[in-house]
Amino acid sequence: MGNITLNKVSKSFGTTHVIKDIDLAIDHGEFVVFVGPSGCGKSTLLRLIAGLEDVSSGRIMIDGTDATGLAPAKRRLSMVFQSYALYPHMSVRQNIAFPLKMAGNDKAVIDKKVGDAARILNLTDYLDRKPRQLSGGQRQRVAIGRAIVREPEAFLFDEPLSNLDAALRVNMRLEISELHQQLKTTMIYVTHDQVEAMTMADKIVVLQAGRIEQVGSPLDLYKHPANRFVAGFIGSPK
Ligand code: ADP
Ligand code: MG
């Protein structure tokens, strides 16, 4: 479970071709990073996988089933956004419980799953607080908690750390890597930060102008960049 395959996926907005003919295979449990300069199509590609945008052509398979036309909720993927998207008037507990409540789960089930997620994310002592009473890193953990309770086949992260200061970013990077080791769930992580890509990924997908320049492990890309763009991009952290 958690296998995702893209076959010749393209996306246009009007006459603008944003994603061009992408083939990609993501294996169960892999930590895959989409990296590339701003505007290259990373978020769009992630949103296509999530089902938040429809492909213009091509196919998306999830766990061997054609998911191309499937609604986001049916794809069993959880998206974590950079802006947290927490409900300000709800407590941490209510924020994390929200997707379970919407799905009509019993209180006992909700309490158990929220408790488990809070333990994994070190939020147990903060469950009754409101988002505004939390630090940026804690808010990001609540957003991740809300993704965890849905027990997705894959987590999709869109630049989740870009609102955090540098020190906290390093911390959260480690926390997300640890979470991956613990849950062993497929994770797709979008960033424009080469250091995040190199330190977190099992597999890096380098994008430029809607195309894949190269796919490989951090070491592959570092040692054998396919072209000057990859060499320059991976070789020169900002
Ligand atoms: P990235 O996440 O790599 O910065 P995006 O996927 O957000 O890039 O955007 C890729 C390109 O697609 C950009 O040129 C952007 O302006 C364009 N784009 C994204 N979403 C839309 C949309 N809904 N309508 C029109 N153009 C869009
Ligand atoms: Mg983006």
UniProtKB/TrEMBL annotation:
Family designation: Belongs to the ABC transporter superfamily.
The cellular location(s) given in this protein's UniProt record come to: Cell inner membrane
Membrane topology designation: Peripheral membrane protein
Relative to the complete UniProt sequence, the shown stretch is: 1 to 238 of 337
GO MF annotation list: ABC-type maltose transporter activity; ATP binding; ATP hydrolysis activity
In Swiss-Prot or TrEMBL terms, this protein is called: ABC transporter ATP-binding protein
Q: Identify the keywords attached in UniProt to this record, alphabetized.
A: ATP-binding, Nucleotide-binding, Transport
GO terms under cellular component:
ATP-binding cassette (ABC) transporter complex, substrate-binding subunit-containing; maltose transport complex
Q: Which segments constitute the ABC transporter domain?
A: 4-234
